[in-house]
Amino acid sequence: MIVCVMGLGNIGLPVVQHISKIYKQTHGYDISKEAVNAAKKLGVNASTELVCADIYVVAVNTWYRDGYSDMSAIEDCVKRASELSPNALICFESTLVKGTARELARKYSLSNMAVCPHRWWKQEEDKHGVVQLRVLGTLNDESQRKALSFYNSLNIPIHVVNSMEIAELSKLVENTYYYLRIAYAEELKLLCDKNNLDFTELRDAVNTKWNVDMAEARDGIGGECLPKDIQFLIDAYPKMHLLHGAVNADVNYRAKINNKKNHAIPEAD
Question: Is the pLDDT of residue 209 over 60?
Answer without folding.
Answer: yes
